[in-house]
Amino acid sequence: MTSSFADLGVPSSLTDVLAARGITVPTPIQAATLPDSLAGRDVLGRGRTGSGKTFAFLLPVVARLLADPSASRRRGRLPRALILAPTRELAGQIASSLEPLAAQAGLAHVTIFGGVGQNPQVRALQAGVDVVVACPGRLEDLLGQGHADLSGIEVTVLDEADHMADLGFLPVVKRLLDRTPRRGQKMLFSATLDSGVDVIARRYLHDPVTHHADSAQSPVAAMDHHVLHIDAGQRLAVLTDLGSAPGRTVVFTRTKHGAKKLAKQLNGAGVPTVELHGNLAQNARTRNLDAFHSGQASTLVATDIAARGIHVDDVSLVVHADPPVEHKAYLHRSGRTARAGAGGTVVTLMTDEQVRDVRSLTRAAGIKPTTTRADAGHPILAELAPGERTLVPGGLTIQAPAQGGGRQGSGRAGGPKGQGSRRTGQGGSQQGRGSRRTQDGSSRRGGPGTGRGDRTQGGPRRGGQDQGSGRGGQGSGRTGQGQGQTRRRQGRQQTSGGSIVAFSTSSGSGRRR
């Protein structure tokens, strides 16, 4: 007999929030862990991505803080709960799931990660918050600057602990946990419990209750696994066929450069595509994910590091365009589909040179895929991704929103060079062949540049420019050699050819997580 959230001890005010979102039946990991976590026990939970881990720890966190509502009314209060996540995307998804629960409970929360300015995060901490959702690197930075204090933490959660280990974050995690009270409740959730995660569990969890909710209920069992044996020259054509079918598709590559290149190629072939990788500025990552969530983009090309942060329930197809090196990465990538008990299809593209590696990979992952020799137009493609194919000439173009005094222009997601926004120092215009900051936040370098601004010999920068983010084109400084007459209008630069190139005031710096 399946228990309800109320049967497990979740307060009625929180079950009402879940019910309003159509969540009424606990997943196996939730049913297993909630009785212990709500009772204040330390919990070690093993569950793969898509198993419902997020609410398995958010519900006891919020319920615990509800027990002392007066603490949430003190301005400048120290945070009482800490949730650590390995990536910006995952931290953002956790915060989104937390928002309705926190609103119901009257709790304030802040999300902390690198790649963006820290001032809003610092102001939130100074005003007082109850819950901190953070990536380890930026949080440690703020602690070192005296902006954060973890001495009031009552409950700590480590989500995707194995991925933190893979990214090398465990030393930082240990230092953060050392700053929290030893008596506080701790919960650790991970898809695997290998040596690095086990060290954290043994050192910081007190007499934990361990729950495994993977075996029979594993999302892997709900996936159809296929390997397409293709010629290397057929890769783009096969991906175009699969990506142009109805539904959402996530395509994984090994490298950031590979993700960017493939997204550009798919857009050029007519598949509305966005990319997600570590070279993107945070606003570009958010904008691309929003386009994928909303359906503007039907295909998302991502790297392994982004796999943990993509939470979309109706991804019907995952494609390993580049087979991963290890089986754990395969399982985490594949976990983008078959979420919340739904089915899904996983396709791995394999060339002649990759046969041995792919066989070893699938064997280590514990799956037996169906292997088909295929090329563009093969009937198997319609079986894997059924429905009428639709191509959009030019793919997807995202209009970037105006931000502050500078504006970040529109650019093609993964599109041709030069269609993104160009980034300059304050008051400066950047033309011609200097380095260009595109819509996706990555930089492309043009012709040779020698200067970091329009600095005269021994004098200040002209026009009050700061260093910005771009190096100049030909000659010294930002202006480079112009290509066409320009005129400025409301923070934009319009070329004689009619295209609009935006400029920004300065470049931020910070550790990206």
Could you please describe the fold and organization of this structure?
Helices cover 30% and strands 17% of the residues. The protein has helices at 12-20, 28-38, 53-66, 88-105, 119-127, 136-144, 161-166, 170-178, 195-204, 235-243, 256-269, 282-294, 327-334, 355-365, 379-384, and strands spanning 43-46, 81-84, 109-112, 131-134, 155-158, 185-190, 209-212, 223-229, 248-253, 273-276, 299-303, 315-320, 344-350, 370-373, 397-398, 411-412, 436-437, 443-444, 486-489, 492-495, 500-502. Helix 13 (327-334) links the parallel strand 12 and strand 13 (344-350). It is globular. The chain has 3 domains: 12-212, P-loop containing nucleotide triphosphate hydrolases (Rossmann fold, 3-Layer(aba) Sandwich), CATH 3.40.50; 219-384, Rossmann fold (3-Layer(aba) Sandwich), CATH 3.40.50.300; 399-513, no CATH class. The strands form 5 sheets. It has a 7-stranded parallel sheet with strand order 3-4-2-5-6-1-7, sandwiched between helices.
